[in-house]
From TrEMBL:
<dbReference type="GO" id="GO:0008176">
    <property type="term" value="F:tRNA (guanine(46)-N7)-methyltransferase activity"/>
</dbReference>
<keyword id="KW-0819">tRNA processing</keyword>
<keyword id="KW-0489">Methyltransferase</keyword>
<dbReference type="Pfam" id="PF02390">
    <property type="entry name" value="Methyltransf_4"/>
</dbReference>
<dbReference type="InterPro" id="IPR029063">
    <property type="entry name" value="SAM-dependent_MTases_sf"/>
</dbReference>
<protein>
    <recommendedName>
        <fullName>tRNA (guanine(46)-N(7))-methyltransferase</fullName>
        <ecNumber>2.1.1.33</ecNumber>
    </recommendedName>
</protein>
<dbReference type="InterPro" id="IPR003358">
    <property type="entry name" value="tRNA_(Gua-N-7)_MeTrfase_Trmb"/>
</dbReference>
<keyword id="KW-0808">Transferase</keyword>
<keyword id="KW-0949">S-adenosyl-L-methionine</keyword>
């Protein structure tokens, strides 16, 4: 079995070759192997009692995040979907002072769009201090406040969350960042199931074009969803950029794809919360990873 990291440019590799149980690229490829080694498989009777929220807590146990935020600010209640086309959300946000936000704003940047709780990105930031900066876009203010609370608690200086509609604010924010943009992830975006609401989906042509334009050559885009229709939609948009993007299995066949062209494994070394819940329910995760041509 080959090495997943070989398909990934050197400047991205350390982003994904991370925590001790995930040292070997092969282990990163095989999420089930990773899970089995980190968390012994529960016996059936135990398994019935385990809820997916507990699996999320276990996945992020390393972070040791307190629930002080909930005690101080109240619980974060999540409404199903926010309508990003609401007029108040169509206003671009102010560009942050990057020098105030990051210790070193010239480091390579990873952007996560629709970051949810932010724990996925915080986990990556904690693995790579002084190597990478991380920026999370999230449209629900309370999630952003809680994520920033955790960032302060962990004293991380390489991660920032913005309360922003990515469709409206991605380009202007990222274009002012002093360092190179090396990776953009869009993971389990809100599916907005009804056809008449598809225009609310975060992945739209202008955002796709901005991402492709903003990435450095060799930079990557990782998308996934547990909803086939939403995954196909993202895939169509990024496949349409094939003159500028190549799917990673074309560069390295060890980035295994199934017969339908979906990546078999999560290459990030950590799962997102939605991914954990969906896998717990037995859903398949549809993944694609693209690289900008040199
Ligand atoms: C289903 S959740 C997935 C969260 C996380 N990526 C995961 O996989 O666990 C989708 C997230 O995207 C956020 N979101 C939806 N539209 C957005 C937009 N236009 N800009 C920024 N965030 C958005 C939602 O508020 C929500 O937190």
């Amino acid at each position: 079995m080959g090495c997943i990291a070989c398909a990934i440019p050197r400047f991205i590799r350390s982003t994904i070759t991370v925590s001790p149980p995930l040292k070997l690229p092969f282990q990163i490829l095989c999420r089930r192997t990773v899970s089995a080694s980190v968390y012994p498989a529960p016996r059936l009777s135990e398994r019935e009692e385990i809820r997916s929220t507990e699996l999320v807590a276990r996945e992020y146990a390393d972070l040791n995040l307190s629930d002080k935020f909930c005690q101080e600010v109240g619980h974060v209640r999540i409404r199903q979907h926010v309508n990003p086309l609401r007029s108040t959300l169509m206003v671009p946000v102010e560009v942050p002072d990057w020098n105030g936000v990051y210790d070193d704003p010239t480091l390579p940047l990873m952007v996560d769009i629709g970051t949810g709780s932010g724990r996925f990105l915080i986990w990556l930031a904690k693995q790579n201090p002084g190597l990478r900066n991380y920026l999370g876009f999230e449209i629900r203010p309370k999630l952003v406040r809680r994520a920033e609370y955790w960032v302060n608690e962990l004293a991380l200086k390489n991660i920032h969350f913005v309360y922003a509609n990515a469709t409206v604010s991605f380009k202007q924010l990222v274009s002012t960042y002093p360092g190179p943009l090396i990776l953009v992830s869009i993971l389990c975006p809100d599916p907005h199931f009804k056809k008449k609401h598809h225009k609310r989906r975060v992945v739209q042509k202008p955002l796709v074009e901005s991402i492709v334009e903003s990435l450095v050559p060799g930079g990557q885009i990782f998308v996934q969803s547990d909803v086939l229709d939403a995954a196909l939609d993202m895939r169509d948009y990024f496949d349409a950029e094939s003159h500028k993007l190549v799917h990673v299995d074309r560069i390295n066949p060890d980035m295994l794809c199934d017969n339908e062209g979906w990546l078999v494994n999560n290459p990030m070394g950590i799962r997102t919360e939605r991914e954990i819940h969906a896998e717990f329910e037995g859903s398949k995760i549809f993944r694609r990873m693209y690289q900008k041509q040199w």
